[in-house]
Amino acid sequence: MILIALGANLPGPWGGPADGLRGALAAFPAHGLHVKAVSPFYRTVAVTPYPQPDFVNAVAEISTLLEPDALLLVLHQIEAAFGRVREQRWSERTLDLDIIDYQGRVVAPEGENGLELPHPRAHERGFVLAPLIDVAPDWCHPVSGLSAATLLAGLARQERAGLHRLA
Question: Does residue 96 carry a catalytic annotation?
Fold first, then answer.
């Protein structure tokens, strides 16, 4: 199972953040990424050191022949096509695409792209875990072995309270 987290909190020529997520998902097949399932979208409070607009988040299960490093590069290309500029950590963004899990592989961060699997903070983020449960309710963290539901339940109340499933 390959799981990709999607997020955005800035609009673009395509419309608002939710439209950006839909556009990114529509662009996946042209890059060899086949969408198998997509969670509902969630409005989430930005988890940053400074105020910014709420995010729209989702998780998609995909299939691809790309290896993780190549997949990460493709995701960065899609982000760039949607106006993502990487200038400051935790900045507002038109699109954010992260590999959460790639077939249960565990990869230490190496090389210039810094790929780490599973995503190093996914287990701490309600905005990843809630939509992940919608797509893959039986998913377990490849390192801890804990289910997404257990991880979500273990988060601080304010982290869970900032999640609002969109219609």
Answer: yes
Q: Among this protein's residues, is 101 annotated catalytic?
A: no
Cα distance between residue 71 and residue 147, in whole Å: 25
Q: What is the pLDDT along the chain (167 residues), one digit of tens a residue?
A: 999 999 999 998 889 999 999 999 999 999 999 999 999 999 988 877 788 899 999 999 999 999 999 999 999 999 999 987 776 666 788 899 999 999 999 988 765 567 889 988 898 889 999 999 999 999 999 999 999 999 999 887 767 777 889 86
Q: Catalytic one among 22, 84, 101, 125?
A: 84
The CATH number linked to 51 is 3.30.70.560
Q: Which of 43, 54, 96, 157 is catalytic?
A: 96
Give the count of domains, the chain: 1
Residues 6+ apart with CB under 8 A from 34: 28, 62, 63, 64
22, 86, 98, 125: the catalytic one is 98
Bridge-partner residues for 96, per DSSP? Answer: 7
Catalytic residue among 22, 93, 101, 125: 93
Task: Examine the residue annotation and report whether 125 is marked as an active-site residue of this protein.
Answer: no
Q: What letter does residue 119 receive in the DSSP assignment?
A: -
Domain that holds residue 15: 2-165
Q: Is 98 a catalytic residue?
A: yes
